[in-house]
Amino acid sequence: DAKTTQPTSMDCAEGRAANLPCNHSTISGNEYVYWYRQIHSQGPQYIIHGLKNNETNEMASLIITEDRKSSTLILPHATLRDTAVYYCIVRVALSSSGDKLTFGTGTRLAVRP
Amino acid sequence: DTGVSQDPRHKITKRGQNVTFRCDPISEHNRLYWYRQTLGQGPEFLTYFQNEAQLEKSRLLSDRFSAERPKGSFSTLEIQRTEQGDSAMYLCASSPRPPTTDTQYFGPGTRLTVL
To answer: Which residues have a Cβ under 8 Å from the Cβ of A29 and sit 6 or more positions away?
Structure first.
């Protein structure tokens, strides 16, 4: 799996958009970008994933650059409950043999009141 | 709740004792993963099952660790002769088989403390 680089920590004000960047300059053509988050003492929670098109769901938006070497997770209106560690992971998806997730240390997002 | 469940949520044991954890995946998810997470680090892969077959094991999975998924449904992870370095959060995840998706969904974890 390609290595990802994320800032160690970020903060944003409650109600504002949180934009979390991720660099994955060695991503391969068949690797997807996944985002998970982990709230203190809980299991990781799946947020969103994409291959090359921008994606949006009820939790967040994922913007992937045209060259696919970086992406940004956007939480449009951050709340205090969004305070968590956010992990950006690239992996081969939809393979017949399964593929583990390789987590880095993620970005610790603190949402301020 | 139809998510991944793990039992127990917390386990405190003395060094040298054996412990066993259970994971119940989301119904009809045929893939099951175990991860371990130590303080301040991201989860690390331990092992992977497709149905009842254990298809991949990390070198982190020493001889004291064994995982099973006898009927392709729930899974157990046993640690024999526990050591203080085994203290960690043990996470289970499950995913369906492609073609539609193979996104992994995690359980709440079992936190192990070895005294």
So the answer is: none
Angle at A58 between CA A50 and CA A110, to 5 degrees: 90
- For residue B49, what are the β-bridge partners? B32, B54
* Distance in angstroms (rounded) separating the CA atoms of residues A89 and A92: 10
Q: Please, what sign has the CA dihedral across residues A36, A51, B44, A112?
A: negative
Go through B48-73 and write b for each residue having 16 or more CB atoms within 10 A of its CB, e for each that does not.
Answer: bbbeeebebebeebeeebbbebeeeb
- Residue A44 to residue B31, Cβ atoms within 8 A: no
Query: How are beta strands B110-114 and B10-13 bridged, if at all?
Result: parallel
Mean pLDDT of A75-89: 97
Given a contact cutoff of 8 angstroms between Cβ atoms, the answer to whether B43 and B36 are in contact is yes
Return the SS3 of B84: helix
Amino acid making up residue A26: T
**Could you give the CA distance from residue B91 to residue B109 in angstroms, rounded to a whole number?**
4
Which of A8, A59, A99 should one mutate to test binding to chain B, selecting the residue with the greatest count of B CBs within 10 A?
A99
Could you give the maximum distance between any two Cα atoms of chain B, in Å?
A: 45
Chain A environment of B41 (Cβ under 8 Å):
105
Rounded CA-CA distance B35/B46 in Å is 5
Q: What is the pLDDT of residues A48-66, one digit of tens each?
A: 999 998 999 999 999 999 9
